[in-house]
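In this supplementary section we document a worked example of the pipeline. Step one takes a protein sequence of length 102 as its only input; no multiple sequence alignment statistics are reported here. Step two produces a three-dimensional model, which step three serialises into structure tokens for compact storage. The input and output of this example are shown verbatim.
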Amino acid sequence: MTREYLVVYERGPTNWSAFSPDMPGCGSLGEALEDTRTNMSKAMELYLSETVKAGEPVPDAVATYVNFNEFDPGHETKQYFVEWLQVPLPQSLSFTESTQAA
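The serialised model returned by step three reads:
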């Protein structure tokens, strides 16, 4: 079972960074966009896994837009890439949701 989360990638002078508005504090870096995407996917999987282990609810994928003025008011970053990234849900959550749906 998977869920799609909005992810914003920002190009810096020497690398890319990424974050998801639905997962505060979860981010990643990489030299290239594809590296950053892979790293972000792993970071999000870990974030969700640790959230479930802690007994906390998995964040819903509710973000549908990003206000660039909110985190880049001076428009210093000139290149962004935004996508819906499909992330596997932790096994224990997938099992719980599938048994509740049956």
